[in-house]
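Example pasted here:
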Amino acid sequence: MNRRSLWLSASLVLVLLLTGAGAALGQVSGEVEIFSWWAGDEGPALEAIIAEFERQNPGVRINNATVTGGAGVNAKAVLKTRMLGGDPPSTFQVHAGQELIGTWVIARRMENLDWLFEEEGWYDVFPAALIELSSTDEGVWSVPVNIHRSNVLWYIPANLERWGVSVPKTWDEFLEIAPVLQAQGIIPLSLGENWTATHLWESVALAVLGPEKWSALWTGELAFTDPEAVAVWDLFGEILQYTNADAASLSWQQATDMVVNGDAAFNIMGDWAAGYMSTTLGLEPGTGFGWAASPGTEGIFMMLSDAFGLPVGAPNRDGVIAWLRWIGSREAQDIFNPLKGSIAPRLDSDLSKYDAYGQSAARDWQTNVIVGSLAHGVTANEQFMNDFATAMEIFLATRNSQAAANAAQAIAIQSGIGR
């Protein structure tokens, strides 16, 4: 008998007493606070599943508590204050992986959801690799609601045709066509605020290192000061010469707008950009906007997953459990993801509900080599992620590859990577 079965056998009765029938859809009441950073253009997908959840649970009022800021930078700061202060939200958005496990699970601030995965049959419908990512030896800690791809290059097909350039398959190809674009007054690659620089960096690193050596960075098998890792910064610096000077003042949406408006040729961003362009801007996938794997990463899917968990001491625990059951369901995920620009983690998702981009991403998810994103909490704990911003600032200010690599290696040691 495996660990999960032993644990379930010993505690199922207790769990049922704790959760009770009140945790079922339609039988809960009170307020449930949903803490996230899905505001503005990312809000409609969350609002859609909240509306259906409240329809099915008329006794529940959802407090949609959002804190704006790309990649959750601001929300995570507010969450930290609340969690450390003993005032957790009912549940909160988090990136599945080390962002949650290395921060709040290790601090004993989250409840084990092993029993919920058993009850809902999620061990059979979520990919084993994703469950492993969300787990420790003690159990599974979050319910994934989506899969996003980080390494996507976005463009407008009609613009490329007008400018006489093709989609670059490698960074060498990009560096060849970038001067052609500049000569026409076009910014080759749009960029936004600091976190989007890290987002770009990880795609460059994946192209330079490949999937195995990229993963080796996060186990400590490859040092950030290794010549191959230093070379990532060298190439990154070359690419930055062809980005917009006002990047630090722009949101990711504004960087995307530069491509849509014809001010820039390309942008590398996660596929929430597809949701923004299709849902908010009304562009048709495939004709209104196009996509490809970021240069040098064809056949590799750099993933992240937004998820929700159950904080210890969460207000209205029954209501939270009902919410977790709901967001893990096929119905909820097939409402949420087509609007968000992501795909469902469930293997039984109804792909007919997804647009051309979503169907393309789902095919790649099933066939590509899968690696985790740094910028979005999969590969490294929050300490590393926060401090890596300093390494990025060092590089943006100095363009000194060795200095940035030295800083990244020091941060890796301090945050326990490889131990």
